[in-house]
Protein backbone atom coordinates (compact mmCIF):
# COMPACT_ATOMS: atom_id res chain seq x y z
CA UNK A 1 0.00 0.00 0.00
CA UNK A 2 2.74 2.55 0.74
CA UNK A 3 4.04 1.99 -2.79
CA UNK A 4 0.58 2.63 -4.28
CA UNK A 5 0.12 5.71 -2.12
CA UNK A 6 3.50 7.04 -3.19
CA UNK A 7 2.61 6.44 -6.85
CA UNK A 8 -0.75 8.18 -6.32
CA UNK A 9 0.91 11.25 -4.82
CA UNK A 10 3.42 11.37 -7.68
CA UNK A 11 0.57 11.09 -10.18
CA UNK A 12 -1.29 13.95 -8.47
CA UNK A 13 1.79 16.20 -8.48
CA UNK A 14 2.31 15.55 -12.19
CA UNK A 15 -1.35 16.38 -12.84
CA UNK A 16 -1.06 19.58 -10.80
CA UNK A 17 1.95 20.66 -12.86
CA UNK A 18 0.05 20.17 -16.11
CA UNK A 19 -3.07 21.88 -14.71
CA UNK A 20 -1.04 24.91 -13.66
CA UNK A 21 0.80 25.15 -16.99
CA UNK A 22 -0.25 27.76 -19.51
CA UNK A 23 0.90 26.73 -22.98
CA UNK A 24 0.35 29.54 -25.44
CA UNK A 25 -1.48 28.33 -28.52
CA UNK A 26 -2.27 24.91 -27.10
CA UNK A 27 -5.35 26.17 -25.27
CA UNK A 28 -7.06 26.14 -28.66
CA UNK A 29 -5.40 23.13 -30.31
CA UNK A 30 -5.30 20.44 -27.63
CA UNK A 31 -8.99 20.44 -26.61
CA UNK A 32 -10.02 20.12 -30.26
CA UNK A 33 -7.45 17.42 -30.91
CA UNK A 34 -8.77 15.51 -27.90
CA UNK A 35 -12.35 15.76 -29.16
CA UNK A 36 -11.34 14.71 -32.69
CA UNK A 37 -10.08 11.43 -31.22
CA UNK A 38 -13.44 10.60 -29.59
CA UNK A 39 -14.59 7.10 -30.57
CA UNK A 40 -11.30 6.74 -32.52
CA UNK A 41 -12.73 8.87 -35.34
CA UNK A 42 -9.38 10.58 -35.92
CA UNK A 43 -7.58 7.27 -36.46
CA UNK A 44 -10.35 5.78 -38.58
CA UNK A 45 -10.27 8.89 -40.76
CA UNK A 46 -6.50 8.59 -41.22
CA UNK A 47 -6.86 4.90 -42.04
CA UNK A 48 -9.52 5.71 -44.63
CA UNK A 49 -7.29 8.34 -46.21
CA UNK A 50 -4.40 5.88 -46.46
CA UNK A 51 -6.64 3.16 -47.87
CA UNK A 52 -7.71 5.28 -50.86
CA UNK A 53 -4.13 6.09 -51.88
CA UNK A 54 -3.96 2.78 -53.82
CA UNK A 55 -0.46 2.24 -52.42
CA UNK A 56 -0.19 -1.31 -51.04
CA UNK A 57 2.21 -0.37 -48.27
CA UNK A 58 -0.06 2.37 -46.94
CA UNK A 59 -3.11 0.14 -47.21
CA UNK A 60 -1.38 -2.55 -45.16
CA UNK A 61 -0.39 0.06 -42.59
CA UNK A 62 -3.99 1.31 -42.35
CA UNK A 63 -5.36 -2.21 -41.95
CA UNK A 64 -2.84 -3.05 -39.24
CA UNK A 65 -3.64 0.18 -37.40
CA UNK A 66 -7.39 -0.52 -37.43
CA UNK A 67 -6.73 -4.10 -36.31
CA UNK A 68 -4.72 -2.81 -33.32
CA UNK A 69 -7.52 -0.35 -32.50
CA UNK A 70 -9.95 -3.24 -32.41
CA UNK A 71 -7.74 -4.94 -29.81
CA UNK A 72 -6.90 -1.99 -27.57
CA UNK A 73 -10.19 -0.08 -27.31
CA UNK A 74 -12.40 -2.85 -25.86
CA UNK A 75 -9.73 -3.87 -23.36
CA UNK A 76 -9.26 -0.29 -22.14
CA UNK A 77 -12.86 0.89 -22.17
CA UNK A 78 -14.74 -2.26 -21.19
CA UNK A 79 -12.35 -4.34 -19.11
CA UNK A 80 -9.85 -1.86 -17.68
CA UNK A 81 -12.22 0.89 -16.60
CA UNK A 82 -14.67 -1.49 -14.99
CA UNK A 83 -11.90 -3.26 -13.13
CA UNK A 84 -10.25 -0.19 -11.57
CA UNK A 85 -13.10 2.39 -11.49
CA UNK A 86 -10.86 5.35 -10.69
CA UNK A 87 -12.54 8.75 -10.40
CA UNK A 88 -11.94 11.53 -12.92
CA UNK A 89 -9.89 14.66 -12.14
CA UNK A 90 -11.69 17.79 -10.96
CA UNK A 91 -12.56 20.63 -13.33
CA UNK A 92 -12.51 24.29 -12.31
CA UNK A 93 -16.03 25.68 -11.99
CA UNK A 94 -17.15 29.29 -11.83
CA UNK A 95 -16.75 30.75 -8.32
CA UNK A 96 -14.46 28.01 -6.99
CA UNK A 97 -10.76 28.43 -6.25
CA UNK A 98 -8.23 26.95 -8.67
CA UNK A 99 -6.74 24.75 -5.97
CA UNK A 100 -8.52 22.70 -3.34
CA UNK A 101 -7.71 19.70 -1.20
CA UNK A 102 -7.30 17.30 -4.10
CA UNK A 103 -4.89 19.53 -5.99
CA UNK A 104 -4.92 22.05 -8.81
CA UNK A 105 -8.05 22.17 -10.94
CA UNK A 106 -8.09 22.20 -14.72
CA UNK A 107 -9.30 25.59 -16.03
CA UNK A 108 -12.78 25.30 -17.48
CA UNK A 109 -11.63 27.21 -20.60
CA UNK A 110 -9.73 24.11 -21.71
CA UNK A 111 -12.80 21.90 -21.67
CA UNK A 112 -14.51 21.56 -25.04
CA UNK A 113 -16.42 18.39 -24.31
CA UNK A 114 -19.12 17.05 -22.06
CA UNK A 115 -17.68 15.82 -18.79
CA UNK A 116 -17.22 12.02 -19.04
CA UNK A 117 -18.92 9.85 -16.46
CA UNK A 118 -16.94 6.64 -17.07
CA UNK A 119 -14.01 5.65 -14.83
CA UNK A 120 -10.67 7.28 -15.50
CA UNK A 121 -8.17 4.39 -15.53
CA UNK A 122 -6.85 3.55 -18.10
CA UNK A 123 -7.19 6.21 -20.80
CA UNK A 124 -9.06 4.72 -23.76
CA UNK A 125 -8.04 7.62 -26.01
CA UNK A 126 -4.36 7.02 -25.21
CA UNK A 127 -4.66 3.27 -25.73
CA UNK A 128 -6.28 3.80 -29.13
CA UNK A 129 -3.67 6.39 -30.13
CA UNK A 130 -0.70 4.21 -29.19
CA UNK A 131 -2.23 1.11 -30.78
CA UNK A 132 -2.94 2.81 -34.09
CA UNK A 133 0.32 4.76 -34.32
CA UNK A 134 2.45 1.82 -33.19
CA UNK A 135 0.86 -0.65 -35.59
CA UNK A 136 0.95 1.80 -38.49
CA UNK A 137 4.66 2.47 -37.91
CA UNK A 138 5.39 -1.22 -38.53
CA UNK A 139 4.36 -0.89 -42.18
CA UNK A 140 4.28 2.80 -43.16
CA UNK A 141 7.25 4.92 -44.29
CA UNK A 142 8.65 7.49 -41.87
CA UNK A 143 7.01 10.34 -43.79
CA UNK A 144 3.64 8.94 -42.68
CA UNK A 145 4.51 7.21 -39.40
CA UNK A 146 6.18 10.24 -37.76
CA UNK A 147 3.24 12.69 -38.20
CA UNK A 148 0.79 10.04 -36.98
CA UNK A 149 3.00 9.33 -33.96
CA UNK A 150 3.11 13.07 -33.23
CA UNK A 151 -0.68 13.23 -33.40
CA UNK A 152 -0.93 10.25 -31.06
CA UNK A 153 1.41 11.91 -28.56
CA UNK A 154 -0.66 15.09 -28.81
CA UNK A 155 -3.88 13.19 -28.10
CA UNK A 156 -2.32 11.47 -25.08
CA UNK A 157 -1.06 14.77 -23.61
CA UNK A 158 -4.36 16.49 -24.35
CA UNK A 159 -6.18 14.03 -22.13
CA UNK A 160 -4.24 15.36 -19.13
CA UNK A 161 -4.17 18.96 -20.30
CA UNK A 162 -7.95 19.08 -20.69
CA UNK A 163 -8.57 17.33 -17.36
CA UNK A 164 -9.97 14.08 -18.71
CA UNK A 165 -7.29 11.88 -17.10
CA UNK A 166 -4.45 11.75 -14.65
CA UNK A 167 -0.98 11.16 -16.12
CA UNK A 168 -0.99 7.61 -14.73
CA UNK A 169 -4.16 6.86 -16.69
CA UNK A 170 -2.51 8.03 -19.87
CA UNK A 171 0.70 6.08 -19.29
CA UNK A 172 -1.31 2.91 -18.66
CA UNK A 173 -3.30 3.53 -21.84
CA UNK A 174 -0.14 4.06 -23.87
CA UNK A 175 1.35 0.82 -22.53
CA UNK A 176 -1.83 -1.08 -23.36
CA UNK A 177 -1.89 0.36 -26.87
CA UNK A 178 1.76 -0.54 -27.44
CA UNK A 179 1.05 -4.14 -26.41
CA UNK A 180 -1.95 -4.26 -28.75
CA UNK A 181 0.19 -2.98 -31.64
CA UNK A 182 2.89 -5.57 -30.92
CA UNK A 183 0.25 -8.31 -30.71
CA UNK A 184 -0.78 -7.72 -34.31
CA UNK A 185 2.57 -9.15 -35.40
CA UNK A 186 1.71 -12.50 -33.79
CA UNK A 187 -1.42 -12.83 -35.92
CA UNK A 188 -0.29 -10.93 -39.00
CA UNK A 189 3.50 -10.81 -39.56
CA UNK A 190 4.85 -7.59 -40.98
CA UNK A 191 6.11 -7.64 -44.54
CA UNK A 192 9.89 -8.06 -44.52
CA UNK A 193 12.39 -6.15 -46.60
CA UNK A 194 12.80 -7.22 -50.25
CA UNK A 195 14.39 -10.61 -50.63
CA UNK A 196 18.09 -10.42 -49.87
CA UNK A 197 21.00 -12.43 -51.18
CA UNK A 198 19.73 -12.55 -54.76
CA UNK A 199 22.34 -12.91 -57.48
CA UNK A 200 23.18 -9.45 -58.76
CA UNK A 201 24.40 -8.93 -62.31
CA UNK A 202 24.14 -5.19 -62.97
CA UNK A 203 26.19 -5.33 -66.16
CA UNK A 204 23.75 -7.66 -67.91
CA UNK A 205 21.22 -5.01 -68.96
CA UNK A 206 23.20 -1.77 -68.78
CA UNK A 207 23.58 -1.71 -72.55
CA UNK A 208 19.83 -2.09 -72.95
CA UNK A 209 18.84 0.67 -70.50
CA UNK A 210 17.85 4.00 -72.00
CA UNK A 211 16.62 7.00 -69.99
CA UNK A 212 13.62 7.38 -72.30
CA UNK A 213 12.84 3.65 -72.46
CA UNK A 214 14.04 2.96 -76.01
CA UNK A 215 14.05 -0.79 -76.62
CA UNK A 216 11.50 -1.50 -73.88
CA UNK A 217 8.31 -3.25 -74.98
CA UNK A 218 5.65 -3.38 -72.27
CA UNK A 219 2.71 -5.78 -72.49
CA UNK A 220 -0.18 -4.56 -70.32
CA UNK A 221 -3.11 -6.55 -69.02
CA UNK A 222 -5.88 -3.95 -69.26
CA UNK A 223 -7.83 -5.66 -66.48
CA UNK A 224 -5.07 -4.56 -64.09
CA UNK A 225 -5.57 -0.79 -64.35
CA UNK A 226 -3.94 -0.53 -67.75
CA UNK A 227 -5.06 3.03 -68.46
CA UNK A 228 -3.29 4.54 -65.45
CA UNK A 229 -0.17 2.46 -66.09
CA UNK A 230 -0.04 3.49 -69.75
CA UNK A 231 -0.21 7.18 -68.88
CA UNK A 232 2.59 6.86 -66.32
CA UNK A 233 4.80 4.90 -68.71
CA UNK A 234 4.26 7.31 -71.59
CA UNK A 235 5.19 10.18 -69.30
CA UNK A 236 8.28 8.56 -67.74
CA UNK A 237 9.49 6.37 -70.65
CA UNK A 238 8.21 8.07 -73.80
CA UNK A 239 10.25 5.89 -76.20
CA UNK A 240 8.92 2.62 -74.77
CA UNK A 241 6.46 0.62 -76.85
CA UNK A 242 3.21 -0.22 -75.04
CA UNK A 243 1.16 -3.20 -76.21
CA UNK A 244 -2.23 -4.46 -75.08
CA UNK A 245 -2.12 -8.11 -73.97
CA UNK A 246 -5.10 -9.03 -76.12
CA UNK A 247 -6.79 -12.41 -76.09
CA UNK A 248 -3.68 -14.49 -76.78
CA UNK A 249 -1.27 -13.34 -74.05
CA UNK A 250 1.42 -15.88 -74.91
CA UNK A 251 1.62 -14.88 -78.57
CA UNK A 252 1.63 -11.18 -77.68
CA UNK A 253 4.48 -11.69 -75.24
CA UNK A 254 6.58 -13.71 -77.70
CA UNK A 255 6.11 -11.14 -80.44
CA UNK A 256 7.09 -8.38 -78.01
CA UNK A 257 10.17 -10.26 -76.79
CA UNK A 258 11.40 -10.80 -80.35
CA UNK A 259 11.79 -7.04 -80.88
CA UNK A 260 12.66 -5.95 -77.32
CA UNK A 261 15.91 -5.49 -75.46
CA UNK A 262 13.83 -5.38 -72.27
CA UNK A 263 10.44 -7.12 -71.94
CA UNK A 264 8.04 -5.32 -69.62
CA UNK A 265 4.91 -6.97 -68.24
CA UNK A 266 2.15 -5.28 -66.26
CA UNK A 267 -0.48 -7.31 -64.45
CA UNK A 268 -1.04 -9.67 -61.55
CA UNK A 269 0.97 -12.77 -60.69
CA UNK A 270 -0.57 -14.83 -63.49
CA UNK A 271 0.40 -12.26 -66.13
CA UNK A 272 3.89 -11.83 -64.65
CA UNK A 273 4.26 -15.61 -64.66
CA UNK A 274 3.50 -15.72 -68.39
CA UNK A 275 5.97 -12.91 -69.03
CA UNK A 276 8.68 -14.70 -67.05
CA UNK A 277 8.18 -17.85 -69.11
CA UNK A 278 8.77 -15.91 -72.34
CA UNK A 279 11.70 -13.95 -70.85
CA UNK A 280 13.44 -17.21 -69.91
CA UNK A 281 12.67 -18.71 -73.32
CA UNK A 282 13.94 -15.66 -75.24
CA UNK A 283 16.73 -14.83 -72.77
CA UNK A 284 15.76 -11.18 -72.25
CA UNK A 285 15.59 -9.33 -68.93
CA UNK A 286 12.10 -8.86 -67.49
CA UNK A 287 10.74 -5.55 -66.19
CA UNK A 288 8.00 -6.42 -63.69
CA UNK A 289 5.30 -3.75 -63.35
CA UNK A 290 2.83 -4.52 -60.53
CA UNK A 291 -0.77 -4.21 -61.66
CA UNK A 292 -2.78 -6.95 -59.95
CA UNK A 293 -4.46 -7.35 -56.59
CA UNK A 294 -1.73 -9.18 -54.68
CA UNK A 295 1.49 -8.94 -56.75
CA UNK A 296 3.41 -11.42 -54.62
CA UNK A 297 6.46 -11.65 -56.87
CA UNK A 298 6.87 -7.93 -57.51
CA UNK A 299 6.67 -7.24 -53.79
CA UNK A 300 9.22 -9.97 -53.09
CA UNK A 301 11.76 -8.02 -55.18
CA UNK A 302 10.73 -4.68 -53.65
CA UNK A 303 8.48 -3.28 -56.40
CA UNK A 304 5.06 -2.10 -55.20
CA UNK A 305 4.17 0.65 -57.67
CA UNK A 306 4.71 1.53 -61.32
CA UNK A 307 7.20 4.21 -60.32
CA UNK A 308 9.17 1.64 -58.31
CA UNK A 309 9.46 -0.44 -61.49
CA UNK A 310 10.60 2.57 -63.55
CA UNK A 311 13.27 3.44 -60.97
CA UNK A 312 14.45 -0.18 -60.98
CA UNK A 313 14.77 -0.09 -64.78
CA UNK A 314 16.73 3.15 -64.71
CA UNK A 315 19.09 1.75 -62.06
CA UNK A 316 20.32 -0.75 -64.68
CA UNK A 317 20.56 -3.52 -62.10
CA UNK A 318 19.39 -7.00 -63.06
CA UNK A 319 18.71 -9.59 -60.40
CA UNK A 320 19.01 -13.29 -61.14
CA UNK A 321 16.24 -15.28 -59.47
CA UNK A 322 15.10 -18.89 -59.45
CA UNK A 323 12.17 -20.18 -61.44
CA UNK A 324 10.35 -23.41 -60.67
CA UNK A 325 8.56 -25.58 -63.21
CA UNK A 326 5.58 -27.88 -62.84
CA UNK A 327 6.07 -29.95 -65.96
CA UNK A 328 6.22 -27.35 -68.73
CA UNK A 329 4.51 -24.65 -66.65
CA UNK A 330 6.72 -22.11 -64.91
CA UNK A 331 5.90 -20.53 -61.56
CA UNK A 332 7.64 -17.78 -59.61
CA UNK A 333 5.74 -17.97 -56.31
CA UNK A 334 3.75 -21.11 -55.56
CA UNK A 335 2.08 -24.07 -57.14
CA UNK A 336 -0.78 -25.80 -55.35
CA UNK A 337 -3.33 -28.57 -55.46
CA UNK A 338 -6.20 -29.63 -53.26
CA UNK A 339 -9.04 -27.39 -52.13
CA UNK A 340 -7.26 -24.21 -53.20
CA UNK A 341 -7.77 -24.97 -56.89
CA UNK A 342 -11.52 -25.33 -56.32
CA UNK A 343 -11.52 -21.98 -54.54
CA UNK A 344 -9.72 -20.30 -57.46
CA UNK A 345 -12.12 -21.79 -60.00
CA UNK A 346 -15.18 -20.67 -58.08
CA UNK A 347 -13.79 -17.20 -57.41
CA UNK A 348 -13.08 -16.75 -61.13
CA UNK A 349 -16.69 -17.60 -61.98
CA UNK A 350 -18.12 -15.23 -59.37
CA UNK A 351 -15.83 -12.20 -59.46
CA UNK A 352 -17.42 -10.75 -62.60
CA UNK A 353 -20.69 -10.35 -60.67
CA UNK A 354 -19.44 -9.81 -57.12
CA UNK A 355 -15.95 -8.35 -57.38
CA UNK A 356 -12.73 -10.17 -56.42
CA UNK A 357 -12.82 -10.00 -52.61
CA UNK A 358 -16.55 -10.75 -52.11
CA UNK A 359 -16.18 -13.58 -54.62
CA UNK A 360 -13.25 -14.94 -52.63
CA UNK A 361 -15.28 -14.91 -49.41
CA UNK A 362 -18.29 -16.64 -51.00
CA UNK A 363 -16.02 -19.21 -52.65
CA UNK A 364 -14.30 -20.01 -49.36
CA UNK A 365 -17.66 -20.75 -47.71
CA UNK A 366 -18.81 -22.97 -50.57
CA UNK A 367 -15.53 -24.84 -50.75
CA UNK A 368 -15.64 -25.40 -47.01
CA UNK A 369 -19.07 -27.00 -47.38
CA UNK A 370 -18.52 -29.19 -50.43
CA UNK A 371 -14.85 -30.02 -51.00
CA UNK A 372 -13.26 -33.41 -50.33
CA UNK A 373 -9.58 -34.32 -49.85
CA UNK A 374 -7.50 -34.87 -52.99
CA UNK A 375 -5.87 -38.29 -53.34
CA UNK A 376 -2.37 -38.13 -54.83
CA UNK A 377 0.90 -39.99 -55.04
CA UNK A 378 3.89 -37.90 -53.92
CA UNK A 379 7.20 -39.61 -54.59
CA UNK A 380 5.41 -42.97 -54.51
CA UNK A 381 3.50 -42.30 -51.27
CA UNK A 382 -0.30 -42.33 -51.49
CA UNK A 383 -1.86 -39.44 -49.56
CA UNK A 384 -5.18 -37.71 -48.96
CA UNK A 385 -4.56 -33.96 -48.89
CA UNK A 386 -6.70 -30.98 -47.98
CA UNK A 387 -4.28 -28.23 -49.00
CA UNK A 388 -0.82 -28.39 -50.57
CA UNK A 389 1.51 -25.54 -51.58
CA UNK A 390 4.88 -25.81 -53.30
CA UNK A 391 6.98 -22.67 -52.97
CA UNK A 392 9.64 -21.43 -55.36
CA UNK A 393 12.51 -21.00 -52.86
CA UNK A 394 12.31 -21.27 -49.10
CA UNK A 395 9.54 -19.31 -47.42
CA UNK A 396 10.08 -17.85 -43.97
CA UNK A 397 6.49 -17.78 -42.72
CA UNK A 398 4.76 -20.62 -40.95
CA UNK A 399 1.61 -22.14 -42.34
CA UNK A 400 0.49 -24.05 -45.38
CA UNK A 401 0.15 -20.89 -47.51
CA UNK A 402 3.60 -19.25 -47.57
CA UNK A 403 3.76 -15.47 -47.81
CA UNK A 404 7.35 -14.15 -47.94
CA UNK A 405 10.91 -15.15 -48.78
CA UNK A 406 14.33 -13.95 -47.74
CA UNK A 407 16.15 -15.36 -50.77
CA UNK A 408 15.09 -15.86 -54.36
CA UNK A 409 18.00 -17.96 -55.64
CA UNK A 410 18.45 -20.77 -53.12
CA UNK A 411 17.66 -23.67 -55.48
CA UNK A 412 14.95 -25.35 -53.39
CA UNK A 413 11.24 -26.10 -53.47
CA UNK A 414 9.41 -25.44 -50.18
CA UNK A 415 6.68 -28.08 -49.73
CA UNK A 416 3.81 -27.66 -47.23
CA UNK A 417 0.59 -29.58 -46.92
CA UNK A 418 -2.26 -30.59 -44.61
CA UNK A 419 -3.04 -34.28 -44.95
CA UNK A 420 -6.35 -35.95 -44.16
CA UNK A 421 -5.32 -39.40 -42.98
CA UNK A 422 -6.11 -38.49 -39.38
CA UNK A 423 -9.60 -37.37 -40.30
CA UNK A 424 -9.04 -33.66 -39.81
CA UNK A 425 -12.35 -31.88 -40.39
CA UNK A 426 -12.77 -29.37 -43.20
CA UNK A 427 -13.47 -26.59 -40.70
CA UNK A 428 -10.30 -27.39 -38.79
CA UNK A 429 -8.22 -27.55 -41.95
CA UNK A 430 -9.48 -24.16 -43.14
CA UNK A 431 -8.98 -22.62 -39.67
CA UNK A 432 -5.42 -23.95 -39.68
CA UNK A 433 -4.86 -22.47 -43.13
CA UNK A 434 -6.03 -19.03 -41.97
CA UNK A 435 -4.33 -18.96 -38.56
CA UNK A 436 -0.97 -20.41 -39.60
CA UNK A 437 1.56 -21.99 -37.21
CA UNK A 438 0.55 -25.28 -38.75
CA UNK A 439 3.67 -27.02 -37.47
CA UNK A 440 1.57 -27.61 -34.34
CA UNK A 441 -1.28 -29.27 -36.28
CA UNK A 442 -1.60 -33.03 -36.82
CA UNK A 443 -0.89 -34.15 -40.36
CA UNK A 444 0.91 -30.94 -41.28
CA UNK A 445 4.08 -31.63 -43.25
CA UNK A 446 6.77 -29.27 -44.44
CA UNK A 447 10.08 -29.96 -46.08
CA UNK A 448 12.46 -28.60 -48.70
CA UNK A 449 13.72 -30.42 -51.76
CA UNK A 450 15.19 -29.81 -55.20
CA UNK A 451 12.44 -31.65 -57.06
CA UNK A 452 9.20 -33.55 -56.63
CA UNK A 453 6.87 -35.90 -58.50
CA UNK A 454 3.09 -35.58 -57.97
CA UNK A 455 0.30 -37.50 -59.69
CA UNK A 456 -3.38 -38.22 -59.13
CA UNK A 457 -4.24 -41.71 -57.93
CA UNK A 458 -7.25 -41.74 -60.26
CA UNK A 459 -8.29 -39.47 -63.10
CA UNK A 460 -6.85 -35.99 -63.58
CA UNK A 461 -5.23 -33.66 -61.09
CA UNK A 462 -6.25 -30.02 -60.73
CA UNK A 463 -3.07 -27.99 -60.33
CA UNK A 464 -2.49 -24.23 -59.97
CA UNK A 465 0.68 -22.30 -60.84
CA UNK A 466 0.67 -18.77 -59.43
CA UNK A 467 -3.13 -18.87 -59.33
CA UNK A 468 -3.63 -20.18 -62.88
CA UNK A 469 -5.46 -23.54 -62.71
CA UNK A 470 -5.23 -26.42 -65.17
CA UNK A 471 -5.96 -30.17 -65.21
CA UNK A 472 -3.56 -32.93 -66.20
CA UNK A 473 -3.72 -36.70 -66.48
CA UNK A 474 0.07 -36.99 -66.49
CA UNK A 475 2.41 -36.98 -63.48
CA UNK A 476 3.68 -33.50 -62.62
CA UNK A 477 7.43 -33.21 -62.16
CA UNK A 478 8.49 -30.18 -60.10
CA UNK A 479 11.97 -28.92 -61.04
CA UNK A 480 14.07 -25.81 -60.49
CA UNK A 481 16.02 -23.53 -62.84
CA UNK A 482 18.45 -21.89 -60.50
CA UNK A 483 18.92 -18.18 -61.18
CA UNK A 484 17.14 -18.78 -64.47
CA UNK A 485 15.35 -15.42 -64.77
CA UNK A 486 16.81 -11.92 -65.03
CA UNK A 487 14.57 -9.20 -63.57
CA UNK A 488 15.09 -5.55 -62.81
CA UNK A 489 15.21 -4.81 -59.10
CA UNK A 490 15.66 -1.77 -56.86
CA UNK A 491 19.09 -0.18 -56.92
CA UNK A 492 19.72 -1.16 -53.29
CA UNK A 493 19.42 -4.83 -54.30
CA UNK A 494 21.21 -4.54 -57.60
CA UNK A 495 24.69 -3.81 -56.28
CA UNK A 496 27.19 -6.56 -57.08
CA UNK A 497 27.26 -9.09 -54.26
CA UNK A 498 30.53 -10.65 -53.16
CA UNK A 499 28.74 -13.36 -51.22
CA UNK A 500 28.29 -16.67 -53.05
CA UNK A 501 24.82 -17.90 -53.77
CA UNK A 502 23.94 -20.40 -51.00
CA UNK A 503 23.85 -24.10 -51.73
CA UNK A 504 20.35 -25.62 -51.86
CA UNK A 505 19.13 -25.98 -48.26
CA UNK A 506 17.10 -29.17 -48.53
CA UNK A 507 15.68 -31.02 -45.57
CA UNK A 508 15.08 -34.57 -46.71
CA UNK A 509 14.71 -35.76 -43.10
CA UNK A 510 11.17 -34.44 -43.24
CA UNK A 511 10.68 -35.49 -46.84
CA UNK A 512 8.23 -37.88 -48.38
CA UNK A 513 10.43 -40.93 -47.92
CA UNK A 514 10.76 -40.46 -44.15
CA UNK A 515 8.77 -42.28 -41.50
CA UNK A 516 7.18 -39.01 -40.35
CA UNK A 517 5.40 -38.45 -43.65
What does this protein look like?
It is found in: Cell membrane. Residues 211-330 form the DAGKc domain. This protein is an alpha+beta fold and 517 residues long. The chain folds into 3 domains: 2-187, Up-down Bundle (Vanadium-containing Chloroperoxidase, domain 1); 210-315, Rossmann fold (3-Layer(aba) Sandwich), CATH 3.40.50; 334-480 and 503-510, Tumour Suppressor Smad4, CATH 2.60.200. Helix content is 42%, strand content 20%. The protein is built from 15 helices and 18 strands. It has helices at residues 2-20, 26-36, 41-51, 56-84, 124-137, 142-161, 167-187, 226-236, 249-258, 269-282, 296-300, 306-315, 339-354, 356-370, 426-435; strands spanning 99-100, 103-104, 199-200, 216-220, 241-244, 262-267, 286-290, 318-326, 329-331, 334-338, 374-378, 381-392, 413-419, 444-449, 452-456, 461-465, 468-472, 476-488. Strands 3, 8, 9, 10, 11, 12, 13, 14, 15, 16, 17 and 18 form a 12-stranded antiparallel beta sheet that branches. Strand 4 (216-220), helix 8 and strand 5 (241-244) form a beta-alpha-beta unit. Helix 4 (56-84) packs across helix 7 and helix 13 (339-354) crosses helix 14. The chain is elongated, with a radius of gyration of 28 Å.
Amino acid sequence: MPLLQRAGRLDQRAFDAVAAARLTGFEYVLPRLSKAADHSLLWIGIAGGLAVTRQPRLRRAAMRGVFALGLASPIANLAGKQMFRRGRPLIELSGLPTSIGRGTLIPSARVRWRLPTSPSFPSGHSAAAAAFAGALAMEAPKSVAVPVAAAAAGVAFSRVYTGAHYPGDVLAGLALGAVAAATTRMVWPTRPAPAAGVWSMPSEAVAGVSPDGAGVVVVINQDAGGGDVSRTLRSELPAAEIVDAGEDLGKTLRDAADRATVLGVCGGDGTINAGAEVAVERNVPLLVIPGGTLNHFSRAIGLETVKDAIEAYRSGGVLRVDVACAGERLFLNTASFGAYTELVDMRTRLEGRLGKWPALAVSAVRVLRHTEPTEVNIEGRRLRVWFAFLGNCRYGSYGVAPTWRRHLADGVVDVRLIGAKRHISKARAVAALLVGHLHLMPDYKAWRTTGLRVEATEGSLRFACDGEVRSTDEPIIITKQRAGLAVFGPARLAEPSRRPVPEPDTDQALGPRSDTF
